[in-house]
Description:
Blueprint: H1 3-34, H2 43-54, H3 64-94, H4 107-137, H5 148-164, H6 168-197, H7 206-236, H8 250-261, H9 270-297
Amino acid sequence: MSKTIKDLTAGTAGGIAQVLVGQPFDIVKVRMQTAPNGMYSGMMHCAGGILKNEGPLAFYKGTLTPLLGIGVCVSIQFGVIEYMKRLFTHRNIASGIGESTGKDLNAGQLVASGVAAGLANGFVSGPVEHIRIRLQTQPSINPPYNGPFDAMRKIYTAHGIGGIFKGQGVTFLREATGYGVYFLAYEKLVQREMRLKGIKREELSPMNAVLYGAAAGYALWAVIYPIDMIKSRMQTDGFTPTTGRKYASSLDCAKQVWRSEGPKAFLRGLGPTLIRSPFANGATFLGFEMANRFLNSL
Length: 298
């Protein structure tokens, strides 16, 4: 099995772990981001309303789309980041400044690798998250979509490929910015442990993979949360003026939200995200590292 196939497979394991752990928190975040101002007094109010009005299974509403899609997304992220790391490692060795372990990759190389991973991932994450958000925010009574495939079919029939990729520009911005920081944080923490303890990457303890993944997740959300809020608004907005479109563009969305709801609106839903982040991102990196370790042992 080639190294790239192993990376993609291990990334899929990480993505599935991320979805199963993080989905209940994600639906609360999306509901709070897209609700009218004042609808929810806080995270517990929102979560309690979902539980009372829609039942416990509502926390996994729209899970099939991310379970399939995010598995692919995280697979792409890790496939690209590992490829880019190998590319920079080979360049460093050729320049006489590196070694095969990759411990010498600098911050610029790691950020560039993360940005590449984020942009590649964005081609899949944009439509996947768009469909998920439509399902998460639709009414429980007489919903317009009967699952992800029905949603894709109806949106494509009515609005074409542009409808499926609604909010794609701001998605690329979020992914490039976020994953540049995300992988920089994780890889620098791993490099530090390898250097201090004199160990190989496969000797990294599972607990530290979780802790470093949690730290990387917080670094990611610290820089992208306002961008993510705009993305959620764009992907729940109407498709045309006749279907209730409020925002002409992502920039127009940001301006309208700032004028009508103030700066606090850009942080709405941050609570469940901060609770979700260490568990989901810790599970992602644990899943990747353990799956990669297993595949490399075959």
